[in-house]
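FAQ: What does the model actually see?

It sees only this:
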Amino acid sequence: MSSQADEAAELTSDTVKAPTSSSPTDTDPTSGTIITVTVGATVPTGFELTAAEEVKEKIGVDARISKDRGRIYFPITTDKLFQVHLLRSVDNLFVVVAEYDHYQFKESKEETLNELQELASKLPWTNALEVWRLNKTLKKKKGHRKAGNATRAKSNAEPSEVPDAAAAANETKQDELPQVTSPDDDDAKAEVAPDSETCQQDLEDTAPEVKLIKFRVTCNRAGDNHSFSSNEAARDFGGAVQEFFQWKADMTKFDIEVLLNIHNDEVVIGIALTEESLHRRNISHFGPTTLRSTLCYGMLRLCKPQESDIILDPMCGTGAIPLEGAIEFSESFYVAGDNNDMAVNRTVNNICHIQKRRADKGSPSGLPIDTVQWDLSNLPVRTSSVDIIITDMPFGKRMGSRKKNWDLYPSCLREMARVCRPGSGKAVLLTQDKKCFAKAISRMGGLWRKLLTVWVNVGGLHAGVYLLRRTGAVFGQTPEDVHESRGRGDAQKDERDDKELCQRESNL
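And it is asked to produce this:
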């Protein structure tokens, strides 16, 4: 069999440009030589720049932001592979097999799907599979995959018979392999298994003692100019991968997940390095509006916490934001509060979970965080004593209502302005109720200045992360807070007072 690099070169044609190599260092990965590959990462949409900054800061390489929002790519050598798992801003990681910046899809569906089938045998799989193997040694062994994965084979199990391109992966535990998945036309993920019964039976008849690698193909497709569906692309590409490697397709109990990412004319083929999203890392007790830890990290980086800063989350929910801050920016002190006793209990339970996990690892279990139940409009916090306020405000969907937000938002911003340090204090606030928030900010113009807005996707909702700076105005001496304090908690009374004042002025 010819080498995979040679086969990749043969892919160049008048319809498809040669892929961007994911392994510029041409070495034999089985020899232990350090190789360079491209790693891709999915990140919270809107925080791609933040993730790229973290990669530069922690790994020392420049990250490229994909045309497809929510993804970045960066090079890394195999001796530093462990560093990618230290990133706090990424949801999922994968090693790139090949990239096509301008893939020319055929006009007919049949021709395009045939081309995808042919593509599977021409890709340079070798280095990507070696990285997958090395990555397995870095991750903790888990007895069961969340989806119900069976216990994996022991490390001394015999490797399965796979083509030369997969030889690098034979040193690891190999059961059977996953199958093909793909999202439908509106980008929802769907899973399609290629027909594997005949192939599997043949392999079991010839070598019943060999454990087969199990695999799955996940296709993520975005764009309107495709003649095929995500399911069809996943099915046909996955069938070709199965035929090439002689792996077994399995939707849930898989060892390798092959990714087929299609965004308009950009195509990226990769192998997943994470079994489940890293955004669930801190939370064990979830609430109805629990934020992703990766999004919390992005919000924290916006306000740049400094040593000894007092950071307040007045609507903490399950404590996702202060927990992420206490772990990653541990030189600050965090106060988490909520008016809901169930939310406070969830936060306490999540803190205890992290402390126990750290203690089990032999690490210091203490966290610079405290939890309080309070009334948001009357915080038991000294005036001008907080450096940063960072919180997820109610959208008015799962929590609260749009109608209540018109009273809640101005009240929140006013009380936040009271406890925040004038001139230097900052606030990072997340909300999807953009119209209400914009009105509230305009009413509080003497107390807050908007510096930046980052548009993000939160559970399919288009939301904004707003970075505000506290003005130098002394609370209680601006027209905004003096006027609002008269009607605090009683908007109807405030309206009546205004009408009576206007009536008296007209009678004079």
